[in-house]
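Bug: token stream looks shifted between consecutive jobs. Job 1:
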Amino acid sequence: MSILDEIKGGLIVSCQALENEPLHSSFIMTRMAEAAILGGAAGIRANSIQDICEIKKSVKHPVIGIIKVEYPDSHVYITPSMTEVDALVKCGCEIIAMDATDRKRPSGEILAEFFPRVREKYPDKLFMGDCSTIQEGLNAAEMGFDLIATTLCGYNDGRISPDFEMMSVLARNCGKPVVAEGNIWTPEQLRQAMDCGIHAAVVGSAITRPMLITRRFVSAIKGE
């Protein structure tokens, strides 16, 4: 079975904790990933080489790998340069995700310049483009990304996500498997996303970030 077949129609659980969060630990993220797989997840999305390598020791399902890093001359922080791509290829994650927006990358490079270099270097690797708009998704598909994701919808312009229209339009028109990701908080939203014709969906915060989950419940008590 191919990697794309393995995740088709399934839930991918994002197991990430930033450095300022109490659960920031490769050990904890590995346990999160194991729990997600036992719960029926079809794959894992993880950040950082250390977390990915530890997770892959215990999890046999496909892993979507990213490296979040900030460069002083760019707002792109999800796998922004070839340095991160090289590291992700070396650690063996099955799919590499990267920012596929129209924002400039480090050193002023744009995606249309960067991704062809990546594809030439790694012609057989699966790459997922994290997009914020329909047009970016269509552009990423045309550039040769293997999967198109709605990950960054709403992050750049304040639009409400999940954007089901974006999912539907891309699923019908981009010609590549579409992955719904971003602000899916309930099983009902997940079901609605799947009904848009997507290939798979990623859910993170609603499952693996108890600090954010707690804040939502506390906000409800306060009437916010």
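Job 2, same session, no restart:
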Amino acid sequence: MSDMEYPIQLAARLTGLSPYVIRIWEQRYRAIEPARTPTKRRLFSQADIERLSLLRDATQAGHSIGRVARLPVNDLRALTQTVAGVHAGVVQPRVASSVSSPFLDECVSAIRSLDARAFENCLKRANTSLGAQGVLQRLLAPLAQKLGETWRGGELTAAHEHFATSLMRGFLANLARPFGGSQNAQVLIVATPTGQLHVLGALLVSALAANLGWQVAHLGASLPAAEIAGAARQKQARAVALSLVYPEDDAGLANELRALREMLPAGTDLLVGGRATSAYRTILESLGAILVEDLAKVGSALDALRTTSKTISP
């Protein structure tokens, strides 16, 4: 073995990636093609180490490994230099405060272990310590982001994500229940459109809106435009909130969004947020949608809508 070749364990230490993630990126996404020893063990060159490090930086900034895995190294260098500041259209991850960081690490550890009791206990203690708004914005929003990053990077499986989503769904429902809006409160419909199967973002928005005094109707994941619009008309909703997380390259989503805007009453605003929102920015802006970069911006947008009276047709 030459001085410029590294086994996978050393490559993992040099790049900060786990051996599992390196293998997934190689096998599933063809991001690298390491050399092999006669016994089929992987050997990584210095160029492989640089490429893995650049891909790590790009995915940590919010880019899908599927979209960047095959980019030339010069493009990756340019991309990571751009996202070191603020990349246009990409929301930079918000770092959890020191107060919530221990809770965040503890929750991620419980999810990795599929330990429901430890996860639920962590959420309860965080709620007591941080309060409803604090636990939403300082723990659960960063946790949802962390789960998305680790799932997309191959560190967690779909089973881990479903496990966490199931438990968080119950916790968020209980969190929102005491704050449900009155019968005269304005109505918010929350959903994900057809093809968008990740619901954590939508659940967070539902809990936040309820905490702010809205009547919330959470419809679930992957609903056709006609179903979302029908619920909005029935409830005379002031706004519809959509969560777009994955995928970022759904060719049919633009038509779904256009159809939804056409079917919604003129007085019903459309709020859209989530990791994949920037990929659909052009169509969303053309539809007059309100783009919200994070949970705090959702709250600000909802507050602004409450002070802007509009007549909603049935």
